[in-house]
Amino acid sequence: MKKIKFSLLLLYFVSSNIFSQHYADFFNNDACRVDFHFCGNATHTLVYVNKVKRESFWGGRRYHLSTTMNLGDFRFQIVDSLSNKLIYVDGFSALFHEWQTTPEALHTSKSFEQSIQFPFPKSAVTLIIEKRLDLDHWQQLFRLNLSPTDKLIRHNILRSIPVKVIRKTAPPENAIDIAVVAEGYTSRQISKFYTDVHRLTDNILSHEPFTKYKDRINIYAIAAPSEDAGISMPQNNDWKNTAVESHFFTFYEPRYLTTTRIFKLRDYAALVPYDAIYVLANTKTYGGGGIYNFYALTAADNKLATQVTVHEFGHSFAGLADEYFYDQDVLDNTYDIKKEPWEPNITSLVQFDCKWKAELPLGIKIPTPVTDSTKTKIGVFEGGGYLKKGMYRAFYDCRMRTNQAPEFCKVCRQAIEKRIQFLTEK
After folding, report:
1. How far apart are alpha carbons 388 and 275 in whole angstroms?
2. What is the DSSP letter of 397?
3. CA angle 268, 273, 279 (to 5 degrees)
4. Element (H, E) at 279
5. Res 247 pLDDT > 50
6. Is the Cβ–Cβ distance between 59 and 272 less than 8 Å?
7. Separation between Cα atoms, residue 322 and residue 186, nearest integer Å
8. How far is residue 106 from each of residues 33, 96, 103, measured CA to CA in Å?
9. C-alpha dihedral, 277 to 169 to 425 to 8, nearest 10°
10. DSSP letters of 130-167?
C-alpha cells in the first residue's frame, strides 16, 4: 500500500507540475486585447480589426486553456505559430448577433464594436474568430497573425480613474474577478457609486451558487466619471453625456439597456484583473441587459434591482438564456427551433440528451403539463427563449424567467457552478 500511495503521490506532483507549467510556456502575466468591428446585416457577418492592446492584468483562467464549455454565439482560438498547437480558446456573444435577428437587419447594414481578451503570448500566434452554426459546428470568419513584438500594439492605459477594492478573497487565477464600471455617475457621486456597488455585491452573493463560492469572488469598483448624471432615454429624446454612453430603447425596446461603446468600456475594465464586466447605471428606471462573456448592465436604483442584477449576471457570466416569452417580442427570432440552442437552460429537444434529460423524474411527460405537482419538479415546460412554442425550459419558474422567482432553478445553478469551477480550478 505504501508503494502505491507513494507512486500516486509522485504522479500527482508530476502531473500537477506539467499542468501548471502549460500557461507559463506560452503566456506571461499581461493581457492581450483585440478590438474589432462586427459588420453586416441579417445574413452576412464580417470582422474588421481596429487595434491590438497590451494590458497590465490578466484576470482570466490559467488552467485547461485549450478546452471550452461550448458556450457563446462565437468563439476565438489562439494557435501557437511555431507548433500549430491550440493554446487558448474561449466563447463569447455579441450585441451585433442579437441585432441580426431584428427586422432592421433585414434591410440595412451596421457595425458594432466588439472586443476579446486573452493572455499575452510570449511568441507569435494566430487568432481565429468563428461563428456558431449549430451546437457542434462553426464557421471561420477571420484569421490574424499576431507578433508580441509588433510595435503597433498599444500600451496606453487610462489614468486618474478612482478604483476601489470592494472585496478580494483570492488571487485572480483562483477567483472570479468582477470589474464594476460606473455609468451615469458624476465626479460628485463617487460615494453613491461605491454604496451602489456594495449593494450589487450583496445581491449577487445572496443567490446560490454564488453564496457557496463567495470566497472565490473578487469585486472592484471603477469610478468612471460622467459629465451628466443618469442614463440616456432616446424614447423621451433625453440624451446624457456618460462614461460609456449607454441607453435604454435598444432595438426600440424601452427597457433594454445596453452600450455599444465597447472599446471605452474595456479601457475602464483594464484598470483591474477581470473575468467579468458589470456596468452599473445610475438610474431608477427598470431595465438592463446581459450578453455572455461580454458585459452585464443594470439599473442601480430600481426597486427590482436585486432581481434584475442577478438575472443579467446569469446571462453575462454563465450564458443562461431568458426563459420568458411575450407576443411579438423584439428578439423572438433569436432561436431556430430546428437547432439545439447552446444555452444550458433551454432546449428545442433536437439534442436534448446533452441538456438535463438525464435528471428528469421517471415518468415525467414531455412536454410537461403545468400542475401544482409539476411546478416544483424538473421537467420540460414549453416556452422560453422569447418563444411560446418549440422551446422548453427545465422548471416552471426561475430567476431567468420572472422577478418573482426567489432563486435560480437547479439547472441554472448547476450551469453557474460549472462556470465558476471552470474559471477557478485546475
Report:
1. 34
2. -
3. 40
4. strand 276-281
5. yes
6. yes
7. 32
8. 31, 13, 5
9. 170
10. EEESSSS-EEEEEEEEE-TT-TTSB-----S--EEEEE
Q: What is the per-residue pLDDT across 399-416, written as a single tens digit (0 to 9) for each?
A: 999 999 999 999 999 999
Is the pLDDT at 236 greater than 70? The verdict is yes
**For residue 13, pLDDT beyond 70:** no
Residue 320's nearest CA partner among 174, 419, 422 is 419
- Residue entry with cell 507548433: 83
- pLDDT over 50 at 18, yes or no: no
Q: Which residue's entry shows cell 446571462?
A: 315
CB atoms within 10 A of CB 141: 16
Distance between CA atoms of 111 and 41, rounded to whole angstroms?
Answer: 9
- For 265-271, what is the mean pLDDT? 98
pTM: 0.93
Q: What is the pLDDT of residues 19-34, one digit of tens each?
A: 444 899 999 999 999 9
Strand order in the sheet with 110-121: 45-55, 27-40, 110-121
Residue 394, Cβ neighbours under 10 Å: how many? Answer: 28
Kindly report, residue by residue over 338-376, the tens digit of the pLDDT: 999 999 999 999 999 999 999 999 999 999 999 999 999
Structural domains in the chain, CATH included, are: 21-146 (2.60.40.3250), 163-320 (3.40.390.10), 322-402 (no CATH)
If one counts every other C-beta atom within 10 angstroms of the C-beta of residue 34, the result is 21
For residues 422 and 426, give the distance between their C-alpha atoms in angstroms, rounded to a whole number: 8
Would you give the distance in Å from CA 316 to the centre of its chain? 3
Write the DSSP symbol of residue 239: -
Predicted confidence at residue 144, as pLDDT, reads 98
**What is the spatial distance between Cα 197 and Cα 12, in angstroms, rounded to a whole number?**
41
Residue 15, number of CB atoms within 10 A of its CB? 11
State yes or no: cis peptide before 406, omega within 30 of 0: no
Residue recorded with cell 485546475: 426
pLDDT score, position 373: 94
User: How far apart are the C-alpha atoms of 338 and 359, rounded to whole Å?
Assistant: 23
Q: Is 54 left (phi over 0), alpha (psi -120 to 50) or beta?
A: beta
| Band (156; pLDDT cuts 50, 70, 90) | confident
Query: What is residue 194's DSSP assignment?
Result: H
Cell of 40: 453586416
Average pLDDT for residues 256-282, to the nearest whole number?
A: 98
Please give the torsion angle defined by the CA atoms of residues 320, 325, 329 and 335, in that order, rounded to the nearest 10 degrees: 50
